[in-house]
Amino acid sequence: MVRPQVLLPVVLVLAVGLGLGLRVMLRQPSAATPDAAGTAPPAAVDRGTGVPQGHVYCGIADEPDSVNPFTAHGSTVRRYVLGFTHEGLLDSDPVTGELRPALASAWEVEPGAPAATFTLRPGARFADGAPVTMADVLFGWELARAGHLQFGFVGDAFGRVAGAEALDEHRLRLLFRARQHGVLRAVAETWLVAQRRFFVDAVAALAQRQGQPVPAVDSPAFAALLRQVDRTCGPGTGPFQLPNDADGPTTWRRRQDLLLPQNPHHWRRAQQPGTWNLAAVRLLFRDRSVAHAELYARNVDWFFAPDCAALLQSRAELQQHYRTLVYDNPAQGVLGMLWNCGRAPLDDARVRRALCHLFDRDAVVRLYSGNALPAQALAKPRSPEYPPDLRQPPFDPGEARRLLREAGHDPAAGRPLRLTVVAATGDPQVSHVLALFADAARKAGVELTARELEFTAFVAQKTRGEWDGLLAIRDLRSSGDPYDYVHSAGADNDGKWRHAEADRLAERARAEFDAGRRAALLHELHRLVLREQPVAPIVHPLVAILFNVHVQNAEPGPRGLWPERFWVAPEWQRR
Fold first, then answer.
1. In a domain, 202, yes or no
2. Tens digit of pLDDT for each residue in 29-52?
3. Long-range contacts formed by 501-504: CB under 8 A, 24+ apart
4. Which domain does 536 fall in, by range?
5. What is the secondary structure of 278-290 as a DSSP string?
6. Do both 387 and 426 map to the same domain?
7. More exposed terminus of the chain, fewer Cβ within 10 Å: N or C?
8. Count of domains observed in the chain
9. pTM of the predicted model as reported, rounded to 2 decimal places
10. In what helix (H) or strand (E) does residue 225 lie, and over which residues does it extend?
């Protein structure tokens, strides 16, 4: 279907990855420079602050396979799509890191009980102008109680809740499963509010197209159809939106870009002048081979590159427009090899301990041009939860070969260890790490099959359990709490590792509110994980980017590089 060209307002371009037909033609100037006449078109100015409004903010990353707020996985969609289009009950202040109101204007934790009451923001509206109702707020919980939907990252919030009750039209009481450290933040920030009517109507339309009866919301058929609504996130309450018509999103061109224009009904922009000054978010999807061309043409505002400092020095023409930023994002995870402990031979801890000698962490740090730290544990470096004396076994393929022989895997005797290891494509550093591991495995006599898969195929193979090792970055979003990765009931324990002592320590650490005692418990847990090696942490990658010097008020904070207060002078605005 071809639509007439539509000129959209000034765009913020934030390259991440997504995909669906973008039917709106976008006017794309050549670079962040004044127009041919020497001046940019007049920019709107916020009367309350004098801050110029607008700018096309650009970057490059991967295209997610789904933006459904209930089923989507991955940091791209979590941070760059739903992070801008949908809100939770609370969020984190980008300056202080403290919890602050979002869709809930106030909250109260009940003393002595694992419960909190949230007061919804009066007058809150979705991007289509519809008011936010309690039915919208409870929609995810309604799906969770039905028990048929496999949730994405939002499942962490619903999994920590034992009950949800609407006290009236504006107050919601949540009963947590346990009194735990960090449970309020984990639930309130991740409890995304999506428009119930939009998704109920979308499922009904999909059922009719497929010749099925329209299912009830609490039925397995509804959950199965809802998973297919993966190319739209529906109206949200965040600062930006992904517009839709009857055919789906109108500003998403598959394998090209995705545009998130301003949500005209966003409450924070109206109540706090000077916030969300950018006119839209645009996510660019570019192959590695052409990504640098966008940088050299100054068509992006941020550009991920582990060797960003060297890249900047090599291109003198870029130096007046870009600076290097290297920082540790609070949610930045650990690159590591997760072992499938649910099947032989990785159910044998001796095999896992042998394999830990095949990771050359210093070489991997060099792959990241020094913008990474060797990883010893599933926690943030320099945090109280990180054991200062912990050290992973040294890189030594010879020792790995010896230990594998002791465990019964001897190539000379016709009993080699055979492994299948998979990784997702998209990160060149991960490809190089996989190659380093493959070389070390060969030296240790391991017969290795290493595969790089597109993200959708990677997730499918991970779900089927058809792997021995997963090379991936494990997100550390839960305030230093590794429960989901190491507890037998953890939501992200994809390797199916089970250890009674690990369960006990993880449970006690979650229930401990004293910072010192909690850190001591987690130190003990990390030492146990080191001994048992269900996962081999390799490095903590740092965020390393080239960033547009013309973007003002842009410094990393507790939420990383968060564009809530960014602004650009009119002469440098990209439209």
1. no
2. 333 333 333 334 567 888 678 899
3. 501/528, 502/528, 502/529, 502/532
4. 334-541
5. -SEEEEE---HHH
6. yes
7. N
8. 3
9. 0.85
10. helix 220-228
